[in-house]
Write the structure tokens for this entry.
Amino acid sequence: MAIKTRFAPSPTGYLHVGGARTALFSWLYARQHQGQFVLRIEDTDRERSTEASVNAILEGMEWLGLTYDEGPYYQTQRFERYKEVIQQLLDQGDAYYCYCSKDELETLRAEQMSRKEKPRYDGRCRHGSNVKHDVRPVIRFKNPTEGAVVITDCVKGDITINNSELDDLIIARGDGSPTYNLTVVIDDWDMGINYVIRGDDHINNTPRQINILKALNVEPPRYAHLPMILGDDGSRLSKRHGAVSVMQYREDGFLPQALLNYLVRLGWSHGDQEIFSIAEMIEHFDLASVNVSASAFNTEKLLWLNHQYIMTAEPAAVTPHLQWHLDNQGINTEAGPAVEAVVVALRERSKTLKEMAAASRYFYQDFESYDEKAAKKNFKGEAALVLQKLLVQFTALVKWDGEALHQIVLETAQAMDLKLGKVAQPLRVAISGQAATPAIDVTLTLLGRSKTLARIQRAIDYISR
Ligand code: GLU
């Protein structure tokens, strides 16, 4: 049997890391089995669903590279089908109209609470004796009253729930619109989904969904309920913990591969391996090794992974991502070094691409002012003379070559009987405005002749002003 999984987000916000991990696990499982992965937008809640959120989800999936074989399907385009199945359930006696008003249900609830019972609908409309002509009824599913439901869960093992604990859930609202538990069942059935991988916040819905499937004579899928993701402080991950939107991680300078690698390890492990290529994730992923308990998000570890990826990925693969950040920071890269060369020069010292873009600004643009501390420390003593000498020799250099430039710096230090730092540091501040840059030969090469000469002159003028 070909494996078919799906990711079924409700478009009521951005794609958050919890959703992205669910999508990743579903995607990996399908890819590993040469199966199919479906994207389905669960937008039946019209008040909370927005187009902006749909776009954010699609954008997030694309940025992460979680490609889908079918979809996006939209539940709002499938209302006819839901109506048809609701009618079928009514016709076969597995669903009924419920005329209970809000007040009536509130009173029922209060009575149950006062008797210390679990509040639940008591099925008073089940037998059709409560018809009210001035009320638009909801439709409820007639849950079996006897027996039990068994969830075969690939993560948590078998879970048994007695039907006596479940009440008759609403499958269509008063306006006729179907509810989540019904639409999800019909969609998974129609779309041939045989593995439902989702957050364990849905686990209470699962027995209800299995009962609906049984009423429709449909074999339920296998389930895998993934434990929640917690923040560093042990509470459920939320905005309070900083970035939770996948696209915010892009803004913050993370590589999608690093985020995927981080997410795959969040609640799953393969020995003590930390770094996985996409191919390795697909090869080794399995539902049986998903943790049963919740996992805590650790931003430090994600940063560490991001740095590993920045350092070890093919520079050409990092280049478009850095370019995105350069554009985002308004840095025009037309006049300046190749972005790929900047990646190579800065990758050891940048934990994020946002940092890398900021650190490479001076290659493309003149800086406004010198870092105050750096200028104070390095533009003194013989600095002006050092820069003057460098300027003369750099100007005379026929070929702008890292090795030759480096040689000039060394020889100038020797000739003036200065430590290398007394030459290299004023030069660094002169050309970059700051005290820290990549190796001086690399920096000079990337910066190029005309910017270097102009900036040395500018520093000489600044010192002797
Ligand atoms: N639409 C549901 C949600 O976003 C997910 C439904 C499911 O995976 O079954 O929480």
Summary: Residues 214 and 463 are 84 Å apart (CA to CA). The domain at 372-463 is CATH 1.10.10.350 (Arc Repressor Mutant, subunit A). Residues 8-10, 42, 184, 198, 202 surround glutamic acid (CB under 6 Å). The chain has a mean pLDDT of 95.
